[in-house]
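Dear colleagues,

For the upcoming journal club I promised to circulate an example of a predicted protein-ligand complex. I picked one with glutamine because it came up in last month's discussion. The inputs are reproduced below in full, followed by the predicted structure.
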Amino acid sequence: MAKNGTKYIFVTGGVLSGLGKGITAASIANLLKARGLRVNLQKCDPYLNVDAGTLNPREHGECFVTKDGAEADLDLGHYERFIDEEMTSVSSLMSGRVLLKVIQDERAGKYAGDDVQIIPHLTAAIQDYIEQAGAGFDVHIVEIGGTVGDYESLSFVEAIREFSMRAGKENCLYVHVVYMPYLGASQEFKTKPAQNSVRDLRGLGIAPDVLMARSEKPAPESVKNKLSLFCGVEKEAIALLPNARSIYGVPLELEDTGIADVIAHRLDLKVSKPNLKDWREVVKRTTTDFSDTVTVGVVAKYMDNQDTYMSVFEALRAAAWWSDVSVDIRWIDSEQLDKEGMDVAAAIIGCDGVVVPGGFGTRGLEGKIKVAQHALKSKVPYLGLCLGLQMAVVAAARNAGIEGATSTELDSASPDQVIHVMADQKGKELTGGTMRLGNYPCVIEKGTAAYSCYKSTEIDERHRHRYECNNAYREKYESWGIKASGLSPDGQLVEMIEAIDHPFFVASQFHPEFKSRPNRPHPMFSGFIKSLKK
Ligand code: GLN
């Protein structure tokens, strides 16, 4: 056994990026949890950023926030949704964080005169982070971002190679995810890229124990013979993974390949029979074509990358499955709506309701305010998430005649900044990791729409914001047709608002989407989706 009793599974990827390594890692975790094991996951990313907070969501996708306030890679969202456990900051490790630690230690004299080197110092620091994240769990699954052979992920690959000496070979298992293209002309799946990738991995000192071969379409079992021979992995340890109809179906497809039992056996894990009953129900719902469909307009800035709003979309879908409807998600370009004279009613025509998700910067803000103004006036169901709350308050103020009402983020010179910068945030606007981050409690007033969703007066939700409601205007809310229905326990911060006398207009300063699960939809999203059902 490893010193702390944890077994480690390392997941690498080859041939190309975007193979769904995160989903694969999360699916393995799902199957091991279903066998009664305590599982943690960790994503190692080769970026030199210290965390994902400063990454551009257009390129990198959503920034996921953990309960303890880490700004993390979106794969952590998959992890949480697939194993229904809350991750913490140790589950997200970027090269920048490790480098910073090593350099800080060097400056503090901790290396006592040694030459500080990638090997062994940086790789040892990576291993320390991995060991720390795995402590207390039966199995710890570590996903290495990027593709094997990339220059920038070499130190992670070297660290996980060395790790088997630290923790013992018998406690480590290496899973390599590869891609198998299908060649139409010869009508066959080609294994050469997979072979080359395994050779690259071996060249770095790691012989994979398990091979997951991804393909667009189902490949015949016979390709396993070739993969096995040329990649040196036993047939029983190879899983063929064609595209699934729903990502949530991947654990079940993996289960059918028998690979989870192979992994459990190789790591000598004490497992019970898998209990996948609840997950089968989830997958059934994700793949049911319900007879009713609701259409939701997501008023967004980044129109070309679905990943930017990953948790919001997954939360909408989960709420829909459990409300027995299908959901059609449409993008409404907020920047188009920014333009003067744009007709909001026309832009959202066909939408049963609108969502204004989180965001930063000034582009598209006017468009979002216009949508909120329209939703208030025309009683269109509205769900506001963080920025969506802020824009809703501005909209209500403007509808009530305060034409210059705005947020400091949009206009720091306006006399009516109904949303302003939090007192302790002044001057930190361009710095990383300085926002109000992670879980904070909120007290909900009984008899409100917020209460109808949660059916509870005390909740905890995840935050990531710099601006907040300006308390100087709070007394005016009711005259603007809105109400602060959720507050911080000391009453100082507005956490939720809603429109008075409206079918559904609820917004939160926090991000409820991060706590939605495919098996447990989030109450705010369920409340919103139910309000759209005809
Ligand atoms: N930009 C706003 C703020 O910093 C909203 C943030 C968000 O939507 N996550 O407060």
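Two points we might discuss: The chain has a mean pLDDT of 93. Residues 358-360, 386-387, 409, 464-467 surround glutamine (CB under 6 Å).

See you all on Thursday,
B. R.
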